Amino acid sequence: MNNQTLILIKPDGLTKSLTGNVLSRLSETKLDIVGARMVQVSRELAEEHYRELKDKPFFDDLVKYIMGEYHKKKVMALVYYGENAISKVREICGKTNPEEADSVSIRGAYGRITTAGVYENVMHASANPQDAEREIKLWFTPDEIIADIYSTIEVEEQTKTLKWQ
Ligand code: UDP
Ligand code: MG
Question: How far does the centroid of ligand 1 lie from the alpha carbon of residue 81, in Å?
Answer without folding.
Answer: 23
